[in-house]
Amino acid sequence: MVLAAASPEKNKEKTKAKQRYLKRKKQRRKNKPKAAAGSAPSSEDEDDAASVSEAEPDEEPPMDDVLIEADAPEVEEDKPRKEKRPKKRRKVVDEEKDVEMAEPEVQDVIMVDPEPTAPPAPLPSLPSFPLPALPDAPSKSVLALQGLDQALVGAEIVDATGLLPIPPDGEEDGGTGLSEKTRKRLLDLGIVELFAVQTTLLPFLLPRNPLQRALYLPFDPPRDVCVSAPTGSGKTLAYVLPIVEIVSTRIVTRLRALVVLPTRDLVTQVRETFEAVGKGRGLKIGTATGQHSFSHEQSQLVADKSTRLAGGSSRVDILICTPGRLIDHLNGTPNFSLQHLRFLVIDEADRLLAQSFQDWLAQVLTATRPPSGEPSIPCGFPQHHDAVAPAFRTLLPYADIPSFVAERRESSCQKLLFSATLTRDPGKLAALELRDPKYFIVQEKTDAPGVLDVAMDRFTMPATLTEHMLVCESSVKPLVFFHLVYECGVTNALVFTKSAESTARLVRLFDFFDTARRMALGGDPSAAIIARAYSSDLSPSERKSILDKFKAKEIQILICSDLISRGIDISHVSHVVSYDVPVDMRKYVHRVGRTARAGRAGDAWTLVEEQEARYFKTMLKQADHFAKIKRMNVGEKELAPLTVYYEGALGQLKESYSR
Ligand SMILES: Nc1ncnc2c1ncn2[C@@H]1O[C@H](COP(=O)(O)OP(=O)(O)OP(=O)(O)O)[C@@H](O)[C@H]1O
């Protein structure tokens, strides 16, 4: 049934028709002989009788009555009309009444419109409300920026390709801000231009104003700095240069610069850089890694252990160390003090901040801050008052009278954080208690959303790096590796495995393979390719010896775990092979970053077992890096020439393990 509201004119016309119809009906009833009804009919029967007898041929009932007739369902026509019709009629009458009560104008508009011209108007109904719906999820980029450190949001984006030439001796500094001595030293070392990260940081850390280069800045403390720059972009020199320049102005030796690194190997490497750049400047450089006995290190670091000194005592101007040993000295070496620190460098910052060893960071930060509360040194204590740092005057046994009421002395220690994969974790950054930090992000394209890249863990790779991935069955993975070495010339290579155990196994297999192949080709010993393991199982001296041989190209392939995947700088590494896929993107970035350093070209190869391919691809896609990787296949045909040696080597390996 179609219920439609007619136009007002139509309604009016129909109402009149109905009135005429009812009038005539009334008239007919009056004229009817009363005896026609045998008994007194009920009102219902009356209506019914009327509706049945009314059907006179020349009379056309109004439309709503037609509706009543027409609306009776077909199935009901077979049934006796007497039973059904009153019911039906009553229903419609009731409907009419309801409508009338609700809206009198609509009384007559219930009709069947054979050809509806206007769209049917809805019946009055309850107001409808929109269905409950969840708002659209925010995009990944929006989420990544949530809760980000405001200083990181305002980071300065630096173009990685910018270079600044160092002028030859005697000329102006060429905008570098470096002293003549340092420039000369750099030129002697073969460094003729500064890289982007160095050019950007030098003016910030080495201001032109000599007052801002002072060793103590208690009333105008320096801003802290966080740097994210690709691997091999020269971050080490970016902090070594300003430290050497500022610390070499000192008269008395105090511990002025502290560099914290995650591994001993990196400590040794950074020490070499300090020694090379600071040569002839009279700086004393020390290391603390646990490589020597604790008492030996104590005697290297502190001049006087027997007398308690308010200002501490130090034999070194610059200390490079691992966090564990640093905490040992803070807690166990008398007069080892960080109050004179002008620089605190945390290199490979994301790795070190992930390390909560003895809550090392909190302890170090406490040691650089002036103590609050009463003087801790009793009166009459034999002291050297001049040795106390300005911010630590409260340590003195007499009242510290400020020159101005609002005068406050702060620690002069400037924190410098560096990494190729800098953390964006607000919690970790907050733990550093950075002072008005300034962020620098060095990347290839300055128009790229640098902050977003850091926020979404999309790291910048060196422009000179070429990356490849080879998907293979796990059973032929060693063979594919040998193919890379013997057929594709992948030597001077660092090969990363997942553990010290896999390193040892691969080295053995390589030895068996190389010997078998060499013997088959005539046994020329000079044709040998030497592979060695570099792992935490080796003693420090063995590790050093192996690294030196690799640097001297006596070893062509160094197989290792992730122990040296960070920071290690070996200039001639032309290939990096990830024999086992890295577990996360940060590891991947640091591994491949062992090649293509300082603008040199380099290749990275990742061997991916078929079952790992999906995971590895997803990891790269999430970092928006998949498109930059060349996918390669090595077929059976290419592997065939090496298969015979490989099978022999496998047999020997099994035998050696069973023995
Ligand atoms: N201005 C320069 N000119 C030439 N070589 C440079 C310059 N600055 C640094 N280098 C060289 O570049 C290489 C890489 O430098 P460095 O080890 O500091 O890189 P990095 O950014 O710290 O890398 P990673 O993140 O892997 O630790 C080193 O061999 C270094 O001597």
Automatic annotation (TrEMBL):
The role this protein plays is: RNA helicase.
Q: Ranges for the Helicase C-terminal domain?
A: 464-640
Q: Which family does it belong to?
A: Belongs to the DEAD box helicase family.
**Which portions of the chain have biased composition (kind: Acidic residues)?**
43-77
Matches recorded under Gene3D superfamilies: P-loop containing nucleotide triphosphate hydrolases
Q: Does the keyword Coiled coil apply?
A: no
Name of the protein: ATP-dependent RNA helicase
Q: Which reaction does it catalyse?
A: ATP + H2O = ADP + phosphate + H(+)
State the organism's lineage. Answer: Eukaryota, Fungi, Dikarya, Basidiomycota, Agaricomycotina
Which residues span the membrane? none
